[in-house]
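Lab meeting, item 3. Inverse folding demo.
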């Protein structure tokens, strides 16, 4: 009987060592293979990019920068949104104040040009890297460096508050003494995560941030607060700006901003009357003149406040990054919005002739740092009866000035002989014999002596020169309704002529409406009676 076959412990140990040896050798062979493959791949890539080395790209990079900032202002304006002189001043300011320095291979001017090109045309990093012959990592690195340097210029690029003085001669602002500017909000598209999209969705369905901004009479931004969700209301954003301590909106007591009806009429913020026509399109050619103090106040309010709308338009025309969302994180997007506001102020102060602002009013002024005074600013936004009374007094004073003055040099309208107030100013129509000639009429359209006066004869008899009339111009188109000499046909009441501007036309329109309504009622009654019969 044979014994069973068995292996000793030594044999088992020998077999285990053999297997471990083969496994280690396999790992070593695989390691050397992968290392060789990685080396060959790197060598192949170096062969491909050898002709695009740093030394070979330097002439092309220098040539590209020369075309941007050294050839003409036209190319510099179209690519960087500023002329060569302004670009040079910005680079000096970023070097001295912002702490920006030359890189190892990228000079300071090229860093600033890269950043301005992204803001102006909303280009991606790969496109900018292709234009400047740089890698995407290099573009991203210097974009963040320049962004931080520009934000450091915030105290220098925010102008000082300058209220409207009492002796202001600007027709747009002379009625608002103490006003320091206009205030409004605008939506700027941003890119956020899917979780935050409901908070940033506006009433129009866009994903945007509600940015509060205030500008002065020269379209320079005095304050801006981006970052609020698009679903937030304008009053809520303004309340947050007022309550901030360090970077809040400080309105000195006694001064105010012009705002629209999206805000409360409270101390420091003057809004128009509600329920009264306000927008400029409602005061266009052929529209009815202001008929009372509130309409006159709204007309002058919208003319002055419209400067913030034009400032927003120029800002978004200048920087394409504000017209559509970018792919940066939301914090970087907010900082880029702030940089656009600061650069707008810098360009506004340095460029005397900006193609985007040639049609705007106001001249550029030096920008100085704003002084802070504690305890003198408004700390709440709540509607008050005192501020409503102040608005009523301002509107009544405007209306009284209009009713008592008809010319641009302060000449008074004569008082009518009937004792019903000052006479009304009209102008003879193009078909009249005295076309273009101004005349006064009784405010009540009454028939009495001296109810009609030629303006030039009246002022000549008074010993003064004929003024230049600018208000209450009403045109008379037909010869039948022609204005005649007061010595021949005094007391003649001219019929309405459909201009839509004078009281006669309003009376006729009102009477026609009443007659049409009466006829419609009678017609309906006839139909009802006919059916009943």
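The presenter then showed the designed sequence:
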């Amino acid at each position: 009987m044979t014994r069973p076959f068995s292996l000793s412990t030594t044999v088992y140990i020998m077999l285990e060592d053999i297997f471990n040896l083969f496994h280690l050798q396999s790992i070593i062979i695989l390691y050397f293979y992968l290392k060789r493959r990685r080396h060959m791949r790197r060598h192949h890539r170096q062969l491909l990019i050898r002709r695009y080395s740093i030394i070979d790209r330097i002439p092309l990079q220098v040539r590209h920068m020369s075309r941007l900032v050294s050839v003409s202002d036209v190319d510099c304006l179209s690519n960087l949104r500023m002329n060569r002189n302004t670009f040079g001043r910005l680079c000096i300011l970023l070097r001295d104040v912002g702490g920006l320095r030359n890189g190892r291979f990228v000079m300071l001017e090229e860093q600033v040009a890269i950043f301005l090109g992204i803001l102006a045309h909303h280009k991606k990093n790969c496109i900018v890297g292709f234009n400047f012959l740089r890698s995407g990592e290099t573009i991203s690195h210097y974009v963040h460096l320049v962004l931080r340097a520009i934000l450091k210029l915030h105290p220098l690029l925010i102008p000082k508050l300058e209220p409207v003085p009492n002796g202001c001669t600007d027709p747009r602002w002379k009625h608002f003494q103490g006003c320091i500017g206009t205030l409004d909000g605008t939506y700027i598209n941003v890119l956020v995560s899917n979780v935050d999209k409901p908070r940033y969705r506006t009433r129009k369905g866009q994903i945007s941030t509600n940015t509060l901004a205030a500008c002065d009479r020269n379209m320079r931004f005095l304050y801006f607060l981006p970052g609020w969700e698009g679903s937030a209301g304008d009053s809520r954003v303004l309340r947050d700006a007022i309550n901030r301590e360090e970077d809040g909106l400080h309105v000195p007591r006694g001064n105010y901003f012009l705002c629209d009806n999206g805000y409360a009429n409270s101390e420091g913020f003057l809004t128009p009357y509600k329920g009264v026509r306000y927008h400029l399109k409602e005061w266009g050619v052929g529209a009815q003149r202001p008929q009372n103090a509130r309409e006159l106040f709204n007309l002058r309010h919208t003319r002055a406040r419209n400067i913030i709308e034009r400032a927003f338009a120029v800002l978004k025309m200048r920087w394409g990054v504000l017209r559509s969302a970018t792919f940066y994180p939301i914090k970087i997007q907010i900082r880029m919005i702030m940089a656009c506001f600061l650069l707008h102020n810098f360009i506004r102060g340095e460029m005397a002739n900006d193609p985007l602002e040639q049609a705007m009013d106001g001249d550029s002024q030096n920008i100085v740092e704003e002084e802070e005074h504690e305890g003198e600013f408004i700390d709440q936004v709540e509607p008050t009866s005192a501020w409503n009374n102040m608005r009523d007094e301002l509107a009544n004073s405007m209306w009284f000035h209009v009713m008592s003055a008809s010319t641009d040099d302060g000449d008074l309208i004569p008082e009518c002989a009937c004792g019903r107030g000052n006479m009304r100013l009209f102008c003879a129509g193009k078909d009249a014999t005295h076309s273009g000639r101004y005349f006064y009429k009784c405010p009540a359209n009454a028939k009495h002596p001296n109810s009609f006066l030629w303006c030039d004869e009246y002022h000549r008899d008074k010993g003064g020169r004929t003024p230049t009339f600018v208000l209450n111009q009403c045109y008379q188109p037909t010869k039948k309704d022609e204005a005649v000499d007061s010595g021949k046909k005094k007391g003649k009441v001219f019929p309405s002529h459909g201009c839509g501007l004078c009281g006669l036309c309003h009376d006729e329109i009102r009477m026609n409406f009443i007659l049409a309504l009466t006829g419609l009622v009678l017609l309906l009654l006839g139909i009802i009676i006919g059916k009943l019969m």
